[in-house]
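Researcher: Quick test of sequence recovery. Tokens follow.
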């Protein structure tokens, strides 16, 4: 682009928060043991700042997708969830924030494709029934 007209050179593509979380989780899942932030940062590449990586790890920890344990003055990190688990955590968070859960779920289910509806029915059929009072919020 011509900088003389005030244009800017295209920079590296910005990743969305969810995309970066998935990449961090993928890197952690490839680790044989709990790893420090610098290890994750190195494998992500792309010049991400250490503080960006620690922020993403902290967010994933708050969501229950990663675990951390003390190692000296810092932490080492381990994946607890995979990408599907992370997506499920995000979906649950959205659902938990709504006041009318039934309306949200009904809207979600009616918008499913026939294949997704069939898959959901199959998955629900495989879930054991809970005794009354169990699992209620």
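Model:
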């Amino acid at each position: 682009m011509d900088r003389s007209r005030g244009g800017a050179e295209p920079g590296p593509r910005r990743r969305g928060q969810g995309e970066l979380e998935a990449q961090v989780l993928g890197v952690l899942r490839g680790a044989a043991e709990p790893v420090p932030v610098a290890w994750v940062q190195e494998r992500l590449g792309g010049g991400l700042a250490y503080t960006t990586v620690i922020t993403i790890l902290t967010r994933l920890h708050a969501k229950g997708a990663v675990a951390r344990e003390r190692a000296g003055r810092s932490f080492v990190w381990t994946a607890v969830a995979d990408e599907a688990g992370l997506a499920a955590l995000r979906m649950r968070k959205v659902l938990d924030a709504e006041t009318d859960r039934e309306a949200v779920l009904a809207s979600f289910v009616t918008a499913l494709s026939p294949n997704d509806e069939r898959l959901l029915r199959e998955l629900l059929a495989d879930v054991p029934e809970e005794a009354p009072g169990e699992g209620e919020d």
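The beta strands are 66-71, 74-79.
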